[in-house]
Write a structure and sequence with these properties.
The structure holds two protein chains of two kinds. By secondary structure, chain A is mainly alpha-helical. Chain A has helices at about 5-20, 25-45, 50-65, 70-100, 100-110, 125-140, 145-155, 170-180, 185-215, 225-255, 270-280, 280-290, 300-320, 325-340, 345, 360-390, 395-405. Chain A folds into three domains: about 1-180, no CATH class; about 185-255; about 265-405, no CATH class. Chain A is built from 17 helices and no strands. By secondary structure, chain B is of the alpha/beta class. Chain B has a single domain, classed as 3-Layer(aba) Sandwich (Rossmann fold). Chain B is globular, with a radius of gyration of 25 Å. The termini of chain B are far apart. The chains are: A mainly alpha, B alpha/beta. The interface between A and B is medium-sized, with 35 and 28 residues. Chain A: Belongs to the membrane-bound acyltransferase family. Chain A: One of its GO terms (molecular function) is acyltransferase activity.
Chain lengths: ~400, ~375
């Protein structure tokens, strides 16, 4: 991946030397923009940077107009661009092709000339940030007037590859601070964070190699090793995602800029709700703010709340990749969240021990509460880990592997 | 946020890092630079002398296959220790055939050749599994020739097989490493073809390593102390110091030989199509491009045919095509410089362990044939009487 190439190492080395050496804030901003554009152009892949530039320029001017209708229209354009670049193949093969294979084939052939083999680098992050920005403008917040600041919000290179998804108001303030003054504390904290990210990514890669070497013989492995693989998958995903986030946050901090946190010990969560408060926080809050709440959130009864949750989580799943297993992984968590929020039994898995235990003596209550927390944590982890099989493998394989976890 | 506000903030943002902050920052930078410099110096020092002990070959647990990537400096340090400028040196290269799959340590082609050639020669086995005529061994030959060693390069080449420009993919890093350090022979025919975009990352890696010696340092740590990258080839011991992992190549027992006989027979049929004239031309051109002329002049390329036991089971027309291909291959190779021989003519079923790899007895049989060619090449070059 990009952060682990030697070309990237040289790029960052030269960039930071220049960034720290230049004392003028405006020059720092210009240097950061130059680096971000260079990064995007160099690593953009076959799709190039033109689609992102068009979307960014449109977003900037539409936001300046502060016209709610125009904002809504441009949000639609951004979403369509994302669907076109990232989901066209899935739409044809995974949906249309199921019922009308000829239509899907001819459709793909018609688009073959204009659809690049890979989507533009970071297109999901770009679109989510543009949508966030335009939604905030629609809600009455003031747009970024400076083209330079907007360009930096758009193209800030540390968060281009794997987030975190930025919020423009926090970022603008932080950018301004970073351009004015980078303290040694920032640089050291950033480097430590970067080192943690690199180590996490490295450990994640070791786990990936081990998982790949074992998964072919999953069916014939002892049950304990099968469960070991599932646990390894869970840690591999965490280490990989959070490693990249740590690196992005570390790079930004080395510039004196703070990016939002993305992970907060998700595997100590004791409920599904708690898990989503700790896992990929910038994405889950984005989904909450710009999909779940606009759909009605929890305001229109249990059924509607559950339906909104399913839709939001299915989209969250699809954001990770254009395949059915991602969508089903999202729905799986949507179901988990709905059950956790609706039924008495899963509610017992959340924050507090059931009231029935309150009549116990304090020591017994504490012990019971601890046991309850342990049980709720184990149940949550079981749910999450089985979900990762769906995230990692095609649906039928994930289902088969899940069955094999519970049979000799 | 208005543009005015932005400008105002920028004006406030004069470079006013406090003196204390600047001093801390400067000391941090100096510390970081010093740490890098020390690591680079240790890497340089480590690869200045041979790190490999009791070297036989780059076996699977000590090769790029298992993510141990010896650098050009390290291999040269090894070669300097094992070879002798006052003698004729033989560098074995090529694929798993000459690496010695199926031949335990001490019974490889290289070991037999060493015994056959005697005291006036030195032999080192740098062949790699999945390797090629070009690659680590050939590039080491270039480096040795630059240091005025007398070298005969001995490699296997498949019937009808071509040669890649820089060696097989897992070993290409070595070319870029040696090239960045200016250790290779200038060879414009090869250099002109190094423009592919996917070479950029390897080139950059080698350029960084040239100054920072991180690969050299990490190899020393990995060889002597602890390894950090998981490899499916050594799943239970991937962290172990590579020096503690012995060469585990075995002489396979009878029941493990020719295990995929039927599949291999089908493969023989598939690869037995007489190349066209342009394709034969390409075989020679690829050799001329990948190997500098000075290397080709002192190279012995052994054309190794598939197991005769399997060939005998193929259709008569397939056998006829293979025969014609073998003879044409030898001729084409010799046209572009190297000495070439049909190295496995007259071999029997037991001289192979599968379609291509020689058994211990095959290694013992092929070595005298190679030794003759090595002596002839040495005489032709005026190194021996």
């Amino acid at each position: 991946m990009i952060f682990f190439s030697h070309q990237f190492a040289v790029f960052t080395g030269l960039f930071f030397i220049a960034y720290w050496a230049v004392p003028i804030p405006l020059a720092r901003r210009l240097l950061l923009l130059l680096a971000s554009v260079t990064f995007q152009v160099h690593f953009s892949g076959p799709a190039g940077v033109l689609p992102i530039i068009v979307l960014a320029v449109g977003t900037y001017f539409v936001a300046l107009s502060r016209n709610r209708l125009l904002c809504a229209l441009w949000i639609t354009v951004c979403a369509l661009a994302l669907i076109f670049y990232k989901y066209t193949h899935f739409l044809f093969q995974g949906i249309i092709g199921v019922a009308f294979p000829d239509l899907a084939k001819s459709g793909e052939e018609a688009l073959a000339g204009i659809l690049p083999t890979l989507p533009p680098l970071g297109v999901s992050f770009f679109v989510f940030e543009f949508v966030h920005y335009l939604m905030e403008i629609r809600r009455g917040h003031r747009p970024i007037r400076s083209p330079l600041t907007f360009a930096l919000f758009t193209s800030f290179w540390p968060s281009l590859v794997a987030g975190p998804i930025k919020r423009y108001r926090q970022f603008s303030v932080s950018l301004s601070h970073g351009a004015r003054n980078v303290s040694s504390d920032d640089v050291i904290a950033g480097m430590v964070r970067l080192a943690i990210g690199i180590c996490k990514k490295f450990l994640g890669d070791v786990l990936t190699s081990w998982i790949q070497s074992q998964q072919a013989s999953f069916d014939v492995l002892p049950l304990s090793v099968r469960w070991g693989i599932v646990v390894a998958i869970a840690f591999r995903i965490l280490l990989d995602f959070s490693g990249y986030s740590d690196m992005a946050i570390g790079f930004a901090r080395m510039m004196g800029i703070r990016l939002p946190e993305n992970f907060n010990w998700p595997y100590i969560a004791h409920s599904i709700t708690d898990f989503w408060r700790r896992w990929h926080i910038s994405l889950s809050t984005w989904i909450r703010d710009y999909i779940y709440i606009p759909l009605g959130g929890s305001r229109h009864g249990l059924m509607r709340k559950s339906l909104n949750g399913f839709i939001a989580m299915a989209l969250c799943g699809l954001w990770h990749g254009a395949a059915w297993n991602f969508a089903l992984w999202g729905v799986y968590h949507g179901v988990g969240l709905a059950i956790a929020g609706a039924l008495p039994l899963p509610r017992l898995l959340s924050e507090k021990p059931p009231l029935v235990f309150s009549s116990f003596r304090p020591a017994a209550l504490a012990a019971t509460w601890l046991a309850w927390r342990g049980f709720s944590w184990a149940a949550t982890m079981l749910f999450v880990m089985i979900g990762w099989l769906l995230f990692f493998y095609p649906v039928d394989q994930a289902f088969h592997m899940t069955l094999r976890l519970f049979s000799h | 946020m208005t543009r005015k506000a932005d400008r105002s903030q920028d004006r406030q943002a004069a470079p006013h890092e406090s003196g204390r902050n600047s001093a801390r920052f400067a000391s941090f930078v100096v510390g970081a630079v010093l740490a890098f410099a020390i690591c680079a110096a240790v890497g340089w020092k480590a690869s200045s002398s041979n790190i490999f002990r009791d070297f036989g070959r780059f076996h699977t647990r000590l090769s790029p296959e298992s993510f141990f990537q010896p650098t050009a400096r390290e291999v040269m340090a090894l070669a300097r220790e094992l070879l002798d400028k006052n003698k004729v040196n033989v560098v074995i290269g090529g694929s798993s055939v000459f690496y010695g799959v199926g031949q335990p340590e001490g019974q490889t082609i290289a070991d037999n050749l060493r015994r056959d050639l005697g005291e006036n020669y030195r032999v080192i086995n740098l062949a790699m599994r999945g390797g090629d005529v070009s690659g680590i061994a050939e590039q080491t030959v270039e480096m040795l020739l630059r240091e005025q060693y007398r070298v005969v390069y001995v490699s296997d080449i498949a019937v009808g097989g071509t040669v890649t420009l820089l060696g097989s993919t897992p070993y290409q890093y070595y070319f870029w490493d040696a090239r960045a350090r200016n250790m290779l022979i200038d060879w414009p025919a090869r250099d002109q073809r190094l423009t592919l975009p996917w070479y950029a990352e390897q080139r950059m890696s080698a350029m960084l390593n040239k100054y920072l010696y991180f690969m050299d340092l990490w190899n020393t740590i990995g060889y002597d102390y602890v390894f950090t990258v998981y490899s499916t080839l050594i799943p239970g011991h991937f962290w172990q110091a590579r020096k503690d992992l012995p060469d585990n190549e075995i002489d396979p027992p009878e029941q493990f030989r020719y295990r995929n006989g039927e599949l291999e027979l089908q493969l023989i049929k598939r690869i037995s199509e007489m190349p066209t004239e342009p394709e034969w031309t390409l075989v020679g051109t690829a050799l001329e491009t990948a190997l500098p002329d000075v290397v080709r002049k002192s190279a012995v390329l052994a054309v190794c045919e598939n197991s005769p036991w399997l060939l005998e089971q193929a259709a008569p027309e397939t056998q006829a095509i293979r025969k014609a291909m073998r003879e044409r291959m030898v001729k084409r190779v010799m046209e572009v410089g190297p000495s070439s021989l049909l190295a496995c003519e007259g071999f029997e079923k037991d001289d192979y362990i599968d379609r291509v790899h020689l058994s211990v007895s095959g290694a013992a049989k092929i070595a005298p044939r190679l030794a003759d060619r090595v002596r002839a090449t040495s005489r032709n070059n005026g190194w021996v009487q």
